[in-house]
Amino acid sequence: MKMLNIISAKPGRSLKRAAYGLLTLSVLFTLPACEDELQEAPKTVAVENFYNTAEEVETATNAIYSPLRSTRAEQIAVLDAHTDWGYGRGSRAQYNDFAGLNSGNMNAATARWNSFYQAIRNANLVISNAPNGKNINEADIAKYVAEAKFLRALSYFDLVRNWGGVPIRTESNYTEIGVKRSTVPEVYELILADLAEAEKNLPDEPKHVGRPTKLAAKTMLAEVYLTLKRYPEARDKANEVIKANKYSLVPVTKKEDFQLKLFGPDLLTTPEEIFYFKYARQVGQGNFMLWILNHPNTKLFNFGGAYAHYSDQNTPFYKA
Amino acid sequence: MKNSYKLALWVCAIVLFSHGHIQGQELALSKPEANTPQNKSQAAQSLQKILSQLESQYKVNFAYEEALVTDKVIQLPAGRITNLAKTLNELLNPLNLKVEKINNNLFLILSQPEKGKPQSKTNTQVSPHNSVNTTIIAADFSVNGKVTDESGTGLPGVSVLVKGTTLGTTTNSDGTFTLSVPQRNSILIFSFIGFSSQEVPVNGQANLSIQMAPDAKALDEVVVVGYGVVKKSDLTGSLSQVKTQEIRSFPTNNVLQAISGRASGVQVLQTTGAPGAGLNVRIRGTNSIQGGNEPLYVIDGFPFSGNPTNLNNADIESIEVLKDASATAIYGSRGANGVVLITTKQGKAGQTRVEYETTYSMQTLRKKLELMNGQEYAMLNNLQAANDKIALYFTQEQINNFGEGTDWQDVVFQKAPMASSSLSVNGGNEKTQFSVTGSYLGQEGIIKGSDYNRYALSTKINHKISDKFQINFSNNASRLATERKDSEGGSRGNSMIGAAISAAPISTPYREDGSYSILSQDYPFVAVDIRNPLNYINEQFNTIKANVLLTNASLLFNPIPELTVKISGGIENRDDRTDNYTTRKFLNSEGRASVSTSQFTSLLSENTISYLKTLNEDHQISAVAGFTYQDFLTTSLSGSGTGFLSDAFETYNLEAAATPGIANSGYAKSVLLSYLGRLNYSFNNKYLLTVSFRTDGSSRYSDGKKWGSFPSAALAWRASEEEFLKSSNIFSDLKVRASWGLTGSQAISPYTTLNQLSSGNTVFGNSLYTTFAPSTVLPGNLKWETTEQINFGFDLGILENRLYLTTDYYIKNTRDLLNTVRLPNSLSFTTTIRNVGEVQNKGLELGLEAKAIQGKFNWDLFGNISFNRNKVVSLNDGKDILGTSINVLVLSDNLTILREGRPIGQFWGYQEDGYTDKGQIKFKDLNNDGAISADDKTYIGNPNPKFIYGLNSNMSFNNFELTAFFQGSYGNDIFNVSAIPSTLDYGQGLNMPREVFQNHWTPENPNAKYPIISRTTSARASDRWIEDGSYLRLRNIQLAYNLPIEKFSLGWIKNAQVSVSGQNLVTWTKYSWWDPEINSRGAGIDYYSYPISKVVTAGIRIGF
């Protein structure tokens, strides 16, 4: 229903007649079609009608990366400030003598917690919805579910090491509001199960640089086993990766080698990389870690920097 | 003699343009006759006949006294007459007559006075030549006089009638009149709309001077209500009216500032003092937690979106604030926060009026904060170093050389001018009335570089097509342009306003090479966060431009006089564009640009039928019913880029960016469908009943919950109309009112109930890939918030309404509150919205008008005071909701709490308990668990005032007017967030108030205001930051002088006024920071915000 143009009476015609006509028309047109007008039709997609094709499932899988990529720098900076070699400055000074959560560091901790669980929810959406897709083949389903499980395992691995036992949310309970806290072994059990499936169904070659592969899953399994002190299994998984003979260390002899051969904005990947989060020189897509670490005077990073984390206690103030 | 001509002119004008001003005068204009004039036969003919021919030939009208033209004969020249007035004058002068051209169609024929012949003693009544029933009474005495209003200005158009006769006239443009009366002891009746009628005996005086007093009762005054107008005397609901004189009394950049303190129950909260900054208006308190608390603004019947920033004060005729449910329920789902009806200027039949007004103002910072000078700064920082046992930053010799240093407040603030002008033309005749107002407001801000400009053009045309049809049209077009300098908040001086206070006085704005100083590099102990405020002032631009159009048209149809069918449609359109550019000279910037645009369109169709009928004198019924459709469509587009080779591009070449941003676009549409009805019934003018009903359907709510119903009812009893009070000399008016009703609030945005996926980006390799995921808000199954309100009130007028008291008591309960409910964060939907909770507001409003002194010296007073008590009645499962989270590094916490039984906005924090023996702040361990934790937080302040008040005094004497307007707020607290970094973040090289230097903890001064100056000093959200925010300010004081135009014999100027005024010249407050009227982060929170200025204004107003 569209509204009437109320001043559309044509010259020459009797205004009176026109007015009568318009009045009648507007009554007739407005009354019946009401409920239709009240139906919302956003120009977006909704959960209920998505996850049907491989492309849709891939964009949903991509959404698992965003929260993990954005929280990664904060996660490293906070943990590094707890060590004996790293120091936070300014707002990050409080992490140096971290002694549990307080009102000052709570917000930063909440942000990290939320990012991990946001990745987990987005993974659960893929794991739960992709198999019901109307227009997607079994191989693609297996591949994307494996990728989601790899990233879910990665998230729980950070969570369990940060906070111990945490609530476990999987595709079976991700919409339930109240979920009780699980124990540390339960969390590791899920991590291992997820990685096992990832190891099985992930591709040998990634579709894009920055997505996980079978070997990435094996590498992570090795690290998880190592953390769990299950050394023989750790050894075996690590050995499988080594024997694949795909990766090698990049020789580094001087400072510039770090900047140009291992990191740096122009480097796409290196033989060292098994699984890396990727960042780009795009607004909102950069690596926040550089901003935290960099002193603006270095001119190495075009977004300035906070110089909020340093590792040389004797000369805490950067000298250009 | 001259008067008789003017009289005739006025009589004609009035007859032409209106009915009803003149009683008992049989007047008519000559009418075109059917016969075709025969120009060829130019024989001498009767003048009357010739005039009649000319009327039809040249499509003109002549007006004349019949006696003047009878028995006169003229001969027309041959051929077409090119200049009718000239030709006729040549012909008529010999007959002692002359012709005055009034306009292209109207000519007056008058007798020629300079012929020296005494004018015949005929009545000055103008008689039509074709009238047959005119009685000419021989008059024997001529009276002259002048009618003025209470300020001595001549009143044109006042009807003057000889009592007991049909003889009369009206005053001319300067208020003078001449009338021949039959007897020396005749009595004249003077009457004029809006003034009390007066009877004046002539008593043989040839010269009378009459001053009209405004009608004290003014009960026939009409006020605008939703979907109609009612007589003020018939009101059953609670309503405050603010009129054009008050709105225009001093220049404001937002018309709503002009109603602050003018209307009881209305709290206008200035968010900041920035030019063009927003305002929050609270009518009878805060109802909603999740949703907006702004009233609905209705401009000329069009429910407007947001604040009416498109209007200049000069555009406005009146503002009506609807407060109780009886008045607001007709606006249904948008009425819960009150409704503000804005009526723009409308043309009036009669002589065309031109009004020009201009003001020029100078704004200054109300007060400067007393900060440390260079020496004190250096000493305080040395003290911090000593306390923290690190090497001192400065030697004594360095300190001695620092002196005063830089005053950064002077670097940031300036004296700023503001100018406003408006030109308005309005007039019309009985068929067509028009009004055109063009206006301009230009304001520079007291922070350098900020400004606000508004150009507005308002047009209104009403045209009566026939007895049955009328068409109304109104249009407001405006252009707003704002340059914002409002980098606010932050910590350690990383915002412009933060830096204006925090920058070290021993630093200078510029380095020796002319570049900006980098404050954090001047001294190694200075925090890296702090910015040179000149970065923001000179190197960062935030320009907002908006074109706003509001157009309304309606067609009225009266099939029978009692019934009006109104079909109206309107369009609101708003195009916004915001340009942000940070230059390459800004610290650590390679040039950052962003542009965002939005297009908002709202279409409205309103169709109403109203009925007005009086039955047997006793029963009066008026009713309105209708249905409306309104939709709201917003689309947006934005783009950005970082890294520019040159600042030349600004925001106009995003594609030149080294790192382009991702373009964004958006779409949101909602629809509101409504049916409404109202019935007013009055019996004997004593008993008044109003019932109204509206049902709204909104697309924003969940299926099955889209429709809401909003009924209301009100009763009023005009006791003063009862016999036992009618004869009273004391009570001139007494009305008791009671009302009940339900209103709603829309509170949520479109699509809130849908489970949408939003898009984003991530990176693989070096490229962007799209992501789709839900947001962190879980969609809920939602319906309206409903506010139930009861209102009791009475209006009492004493001594001919010289004292008029309006009182209202109300209780408002808002239920089904849409509330953000926290969910376990592990759900990842961290919050959802539910219909839970209830809030109550109750209060008392008093308004008192007094005509303290009447006469040559006139003194009117209007005062109002409003008490409101707000409390949260229930929340989801009784759970507290923490609000207003701030992070100023030295502390990071929530400042407010929503808790059952406490008011909205409750400040929540720790109580301090002196200092430890090391000078650290001690906090009270309220739960006695031996540790200070969030469980020790308590109620530390309340931003809601105990009462708000306003007092306006108008004095006039001869041509002088003195207005003083006081406005205040009592019992409200301010959470001074600015003071947290600025008085307690030690060791960061921040400048601070001098008080910190003078009064901090030392072993010798253990009870100091501030703790030990040490890096280790830690702060909490404690009662230290709560200050009394009560204030009383002289909002406006104005002295105006009305020039005695009549003495200058400048006939073309009707009135002229010059004035000087001051706004916020005096403020009484205990608040320590710049200004108590700041609500930058919600009510009562001051966080490095743009302060309000004080202003001196000069103005001129001229009417033609």
From TrEMBL, chain A:
<feature type="domain" description="SusD-like N-terminal">
    <location>
        <begin position="106"/>
        <end position="226"/>
    </location>
</feature>
<protein>
    <recommendedName>
        <fullName>SusD-like N-terminal domain-containing protein</fullName>
    </recommendedName>
</protein>
<dbReference type="InterPro" id="IPR033985">
    <property type="entry name" value="SusD-like_N"/>
</dbReference>
<dbReference type="Pfam" id="PF14322">
    <property type="entry name" value="SusD-like_3"/>
</dbReference>
<dbReference type="InterPro" id="IPR011990">
    <property type="entry name" value="TPR-like_helical_dom_sf"/>
</dbReference>
UniProtKB/TrEMBL annotation, chain B:
<keyword id="KW-1134">Transmembrane beta strand</keyword>
<dbReference type="InterPro" id="IPR039426">
    <property type="entry name" value="TonB-dep_rcpt-like"/>
</dbReference>
<keyword id="KW-0998">Cell outer membrane</keyword>
<dbReference type="InterPro" id="IPR023997">
    <property type="entry name" value="TonB-dep_OMP_SusC/RagA_CS"/>
</dbReference>
<dbReference type="Pfam" id="PF07715">
    <property type="entry name" value="Plug"/>
</dbReference>
<keyword id="KW-0813">Transport</keyword>
<protein>
    <submittedName>
        <fullName>SusC/RagA family TonB-linked outer membrane protein</fullName>
    </submittedName>
</protein>
<comment type="similarity">
    <text>Belongs to the TonB-dependent receptor family.</text>
</comment>
<keyword id="KW-0472">Membrane</keyword>
<dbReference type="InterPro" id="IPR023996">
    <property type="entry name" value="TonB-dep_OMP_SusC/RagA"/>
</dbReference>
<dbReference type="InterPro" id="IPR036942">
    <property type="entry name" value="Beta-barrel_TonB_sf"/>
</dbReference>
<keyword id="KW-0812">Transmembrane</keyword>
<dbReference type="Pfam" id="PF13715">
    <property type="entry name" value="CarbopepD_reg_2"/>
</dbReference>
<dbReference type="InterPro" id="IPR008969">
    <property type="entry name" value="CarboxyPept-like_regulatory"/>
</dbReference>
<dbReference type="InterPro" id="IPR037066">
    <property type="entry name" value="Plug_dom_sf"/>
</dbReference>
<dbReference type="GO" id="GO:0009279">
    <property type="term" value="C:cell outer membrane"/>
</dbReference>
<feature type="domain" description="TonB-dependent receptor plug">
    <location>
        <begin position="232"/>
        <end position="339"/>
    </location>
</feature>
<dbReference type="InterPro" id="IPR012910">
    <property type="entry name" value="Plug_dom"/>
</dbReference>
